Every structure is written in C-alpha cells, then in structure tokens.
Amino acid sequence: MTDAAQYSPDEERAIREAARRGEKPACPRCGVILTPRDIGGGSFGLGYARRREWLICPSCHRSVLFDRKRGTRN
C-alpha cells in the first residue's frame, strides 16, 4: 500500500522524465508546478560530487528527490 503523503513510483517516474526533458513538472495530485531545490553533495575536490534535484509541491508538500545527471531516485 502506498503512503498517501508520497508519490507513487509511477508518479515519481513521470516527474523525473518531465524534468529531464527540461519541462517544469506539475504535481500529479494537485496540478501545481513543482518548486525545484538544488542539492549538492559529496566531497567537492575529491572526485565525487552529486548534483541532485528536489522537487516540492507548494500545495500538498509532496516531493521527489533524484540525481539530476542520471535521472534516478538516488
């Protein structure tokens, strides 16, 4: 059973694909454009630096986090 406060795997996949195409994804539950938040990570200067994106719905507060380069969840 999926938690109602989270997106389903299919919803997350659709959001990531839209973001990868350069679109501004909308929340599949509310229809509101998701707000992007950049998240850096890793040890800069040590060859490991992940660029993540966090998309948050300003209405229902659901969110999805993914690795921007790969377009995957983690």
Structure commentary:
By secondary structure, this protein is α+β, with helices and mostly antiparallel strands. It has one domain. Helices cover 16% and strands 31% of the residues. It has one helix and three strands. It has a three-stranded antiparallel sheet with strand order 1-2-3, covered by helices on one side. The longest helix is centred in the N-terminal third of the chain and has 12 residues, at 9-20. The protein is globular and about 30 Å long. The chain starts with 8 loop residues before the first helix and ends in a 7-residue tail after the last strand.
Salient structural properties:
74 residues; alpha+beta; globular; 1 helix
Could you give a short description of this structure?
The chain has one helix at 9-20, and strands spanning 35-43, 48-56, 63-67. The protein has 74 residues and is α+β, with helices and mostly antiparallel strands. The mean pLDDT is 81.
Q: What percent of residues adopt helix (DSSP H or I)? A: 10-25%
Q: What's the rounded overall pLDDT mean?
A: 81
- The helix/strand series, from N terminus to C terminus, equals HEEE
Question: For the report, how would you describe the main beta sheet?
Answer: 3 strands, antiparallel
What's the structural domain tally? 1
Q: What's the total helix number?
A: 1
Structural class, judged by helices and strands?
alpha+beta
Question: What's the oligomerization state?
Answer: single chain
Radius of gyration, whole Å: 13 Å
Spatial order of strands in the largest sheet: 1-2-3
